């Protein structure tokens, strides 16, 4: 088994996936980052739907991108993201970790209902005072233990 990362926002993504499947002589896991959506369901950087606080919108977004992924042959989304506050991108997603978990769960249910796996991202979070972008370097947090547990890690805890 092999794996291929396809950037979902690439205008040639669907064609690339088809080509990979045609030439591979073994099963290929095709995955992508889907925090901004895909194809006609791209909604902008850092998923502004979470700011609505309404789980039905999060689910609808997840379902729409899940259906597109299924059609294209993508099996796994690296999304939703579970970040309380991003100093890197200066975005406050929702006011509490409880809301983050509710919105992320609703968003992940959409792709799951389409047969697509998901994995939460931005662990331990994007909170760091050096503005290190986790997409460009190893994850880093300069929070103390209490801040990590109360803010950054709690969305990843099992209920």
Briefly say what this structure is.
This protein has 159 residues and is an alpha/beta fold.
Protein described:
The protein has a single domain (2-156), classed as Glycoside hydrolase, family 3, N-terminal domain (TIM Barrel, Alpha-Beta Barrel), CATH 3.20.20. Helix content is 34%, strand content 16%. It starts with a strand and ends in a 7-residue tail after the last helix. The chain has helices at 13-23, 55-72, 97-113, 145-152; strands spanning 2-5, 28-33, 76-81, 85-86, 91-92, 117-121. The protein is globular. It is an alpha/beta fold. The strands form 2 sheets. The protein has a 4-stranded parallel sheet. The longest helix has 18 residues, at 55-72.
CATH topology: TIM Barrel
Second CATH tier, the architecture:
Alpha-Beta Barrel
- How many structural domains are formed by the residues? 1
Query: Could you give the order of the helices and strands?
Result: EHEHEEEHEH
Helix vs. strand class: alpha/beta
Helix count, per DSSP?
4
- Cα-atom Rg, whole angstroms? 16 Å
Average pLDDT confidence is 76
How are the SSEs placed, and which strands pair?
Elements: E1 2-5, H1 13-23, E2 28-33, H2 55-72, E3 76-81, E4 85-86, E5 91-92, H3 97-113, E6 117-121, H4 145-152
Parallel strand pairs: 1-2, 2-3, 3-6
Antiparallel strand pairs: 4-5
Helix pairs in contact: 2-3
Keywords, separated by commas or semicolons:
alpha/beta, four-stranded parallel β-sheet, TIM Barrel
